[in-house]
């Protein structure tokens, strides 16, 4: 074989075991005990950690939604409402704000959130829902019969 | 442990606490006044004969001149090196470097990778925690516990009749049952015997 440049002297002997293990140990650098330094112990922990992170993607979305619900409910409670009632009114009036935006409003733009709470109250009064005075005249509910 | 820092970055999909994470940031507010392209120089290394560099050779022949004209601030180096696989090496103003192998990639892919490197700052690709950042999250002012309360409570003298009154919540179940019982007009046997 005519070796025309020094690069061709290099022989590919096989996969580089050291650097492959280094890549796994980089991911286990923050683990406890032997799991961070010993490859045979670390590989198991790293595989579990990676699978957990895969599964957690759906769980994170779920957790964030629960957090947003809690925050919006807290904002509504101040006006004597809850998010269930507000959601119904927002759907009826066509206000297409999602939970992420509503919780941001409740925290950072409280006057806008108050406006939405007042809208809920007004709409409920119009429909005769959730009021101590009872339904408007001409409406018969099951409790009356 | 020091060997871990010499490690080439794994694919950007593997986020780990080791590689770190950051929030979205514009380094030095680039673009707010004037935008300065952070890419300093780009090196295209390829082989003149090997098949893996075919895409790179096509790119250099046809598309590279357009890239160089559109980015006059970027120095483009072309390095033909025998028996090596093709690659792009980008260097940025803050000293950051990016190496991407172009082995066996067609010219279209190389166009896209060049556009990707063009827009990057030299900071490493950490996991971004949130897609948005703002220095001024609130316009109306953030919520406080006293925002929706009557300011009169600040100067009220306690004990206060009006503020201490019970909120009307509607009829309780006990009251409803009492009313229902009265409607039935039932009389107890003892009372009947007493009256008779």
From TrEMBL, chain A:
It holds the Pfam family Ribosomal_L20. One of its GO terms (biological process) is translation. GO terms for cellular component: ribonucleoprotein complex; ribosome. Keywords: Ribonucleoprotein, Ribosomal protein. GO terms for molecular function: rRNA binding; structural constituent of ribosome. It comes from the Eukaryota. Belongs to the bacterial ribosomal protein bL20 family. PANTHER family: 39S RIBOSOMAL PROTEIN L20 (PTHR10986). This is Large ribosomal subunit protein bL20m. It comes from Halocaridina rubra (Hawaiian red shrimp).
Automatic annotation (TrEMBL), chain B:
The keyword Mitochondrion applies. SUPFAM superfamilies: Thioredoxin-like. Keywords: Mitochondrion, Ribonucleoprotein, Ribosomal protein. Residues 48-121 form the Ribosomal protein/NADH dehydrogenase domain. It comes from the Eukaryota. Its main location: mitochondrion. It holds the Pfam family L51_S25_CI-B8. One of its GO terms (molecular function) is structural constituent of ribosome. The keyword Ribonucleoprotein applies. One of its GO terms (cellular component) is mitochondrial large ribosomal subunit. InterPro entries: Ribosomal_mL43, Ribosomal_mL43/mS25/NADH_DH, Thioredoxin-like_sf. GO terms for biological process: mitochondrial translation. It is found in: Mitochondrion. Belongs to the mitochondrion-specific ribosomal protein mL43 family. This is Large ribosomal subunit protein mL43. It comes from Halocaridina rubra. The lineage of its organism: Eukaryota, Metazoa, Ecdysozoa, Arthropoda, Crustacea. The gene is MRPL43.
